[in-house]
Amino acid sequence: AQTVTQSQPEMSVQEAETVTLSCTYDTSESDYYLFWYKQPPSRQMILVIRQEAYKQQNATENRFSVNFQKAAKSFSLKISDSQLGDAAMYFCAYRSAAGATNKLIFGTGTLLAVQP
Amino acid sequence: NAGVTQTPKFRVLKTGQSMTLLCAQDMNHEYMYWYRQDPGMGLRLIHYSVGEGTTAKGEVPDGYNVSRLKKQNFLLGLESAAPSQTSVYFCASSYSKPKDQPQHFGDGTRLSIL
To answer: Using an 8 Å Cβ cutoff, are A19 and A13 in contact?
Structure first.
């Protein structure tokens, strides 16, 4: 069974600085998708970025980018020019490309604080 | 667009009571999911559905039942609530294809069992 590990329960960053959140996963599959979701205090689950395992190029969405290392099974999220609104819980999630369920397997989350 | 709507947003129950959480989506998504979120444990899948009239167990299904009589609705039932079911419950939905489509989440239901 696949597992997702986020080893940093809490992180802190100064406003305008860069922070990297770690995520590792365990799978025997070769095709899958990886996601980062943001959960602010409002409790909403907001998609930040997604990556397909077969794409070698790292995904980027404005100030958010990933470092996808398939061989190492690592999928870290880099937030550049951190803003106060980035403060939230961040979840890494895995989805198999096989089967017909599109189920997500989540990590335990990293709580990011942004200091002014 | 309403997206995914969960009802109610908050509820307090006594042990042994029953209740139903309602999830409605207006995006014509085939797939729907129920998760629970507990501190330090992320989101865990309770049950899911890949189409109207179909349901399947997820990672933590015990104590819950679900039904999907209409494509747009996915109901989560607690027949006899227990304190261990105190949690925040999220409903989500997605298209079946393409596979990289994200799940869209509701705003969650905070449920407390006394």
So the answer is: yes
